[in-house]
Automatic annotation (TrEMBL):
Residues 25-45 have a biased composition (Basic and acidic residues). Residues 64-152 form the Antigen I/II N-terminal domain. Residues 1-19 form the signal peptide. It comes from the Bacteria. It holds the Pfam family Adhesin_P1_N. The keyword NAD does not apply. This is Antigen I/II N-terminal domain-containing protein. Residues 24-45, 200-220 are annotated as: Disordered. The keyword Chloroplast does not apply.
Amino acid sequence: MLKKMIIGIMILFLFTVTACSSDEEVSKEKKDDDSVEKTEQKEEGIEVDKGLLNVEITLPEMLFEEDNMDDVVERAKEDGAKEVKKNDDGSVTFKMSKKDHKKMMEEMKEDVAESLDEIKKDDAFTSIKDITYNKDFSDITLVVDKEAYENSFDGFAIFGIGLTSTFYHVFDGENPEKIKIQLNIEDEASGEVFEEVILPEDLENMGETEDTKEADDIEE
């Protein structure tokens, strides 16, 4: 249950952004704002503490609002959790052995790789011809038909892919402040990388830009 929930959090971002990309009636600015907001909401309640022998993963209350706590505990223990604790703020902490955590990360890695490969076959992203990535998804390249890419909403796939990779690193216990995901957009015809996105840096900058714009509008 725990592994499925964590994998679901990451894969959710891929399909959320996929759905948004096909809705051409929504403006690009609004979609960017939504992506930033959803990222901040999700990351706020996720904590991973890697100890000497065990790993503790704390997930936010919003993931358990419709669940019976007894069922959550039972299913999590069946899935390898040694202890399950509901915290005062409603979040839930799962404790597992390092061995089980390593196994979980291996399964997550397979799921993320499969999801990235599926994007290449998705009719929603016709300009994306190939996606390559390194072993920890920190450097990802999208090979695209440049003209088709620039005249479509396929660019929103970048954020879904980047956020999924970010969460993979978060659940692996990395310091969130040190996580850096680089996404390269490469023209299939020329081999030129004509766009680069760095996450989470570019999302943070996007949020700061919008805050400044709103402040200027208020002053006017």
